[in-house]
Amino acid sequence: MERNTLSNWNWDSLWPAPAKLNLFLHVIGRRADGYHLLQTVFRFIDRADTLRFEPRSDGEIVLATPIPGVPTDSDLTVRAARLLQQASACRQGATIHLDKQLPMGGGLGGGSSDAATVLLALNHLWQTGLTRPQLEKLGLTLGADVPVFVHGHNTFAEGIGEAFTDIELPPESYLVLHPAIHVPTSAIFGAPELKRDTPPIRHSEWQPGQGHNDLEAVACAKFPAVAEYLNWLKQHAPQAMMTGSGACVFAGFASRREAEAILAQCPSGMNAWIADGLGEHPLAKIS
User: Fold this and answer.
1) SS3 270
2) Which entry of 49, 75, 114, 145 is annotated as an active-site residue?
3) What is the reported pTM?
């Protein structure tokens, strides 16, 4: 993933919106308002959507590349830009170009990452002066996964996914399999059978490879393609698990060569790719 230096992020730049993996995901409770209490580790990987912005003097937010089936006013990139305008009293506008590579409903955080990159990029380009914590709070109103992408560091997350303790993760390559389905997050978190009482762990005690994904059993039961892909991957990499609420499943390897060896064995027609873990979000230091 190409990265601009901090001195030359400008209106002509391509702005990355990387995917994330949940290296584990435990549901440890549920709040009175229905939100689930989670523990997870977010890891950024070098597969991404990219965005480009054009300035507008009319104050309008225009999405030049609408996603089929998603009304413009509901698109997270448009909502993020308008939210930033409102929060900062900014009168500038922007045309947003989105090159969508990350699947929707895949558990990779694509829409949330896009929204976070809009907040970070336009905060910089419009020079609104909002701090990163302020942008995190704005992001939380758009979705529970948006703040971590604004935060910009691999992190142990708690609460509803917005309380962070940053961690260092070892280099790792990930083989990711994507069943060609869309898994709605609400269908998983709303399932009565979802396990919601996993005992919490201390962030200081967590080690890579520890934990599981509590959402996995529900997703596999409701979406057989997820179970099919996960079962195949577990045969070759027992550490495999689902990311987020699905549909993507993944396994981590100490070397890219190990991941490539399993990739070469994937059946014809199985959508699979390799991505390396990032030390931080490419925009972690932008202001």
Assistant:
1) coil
2) 145
3) 0.95
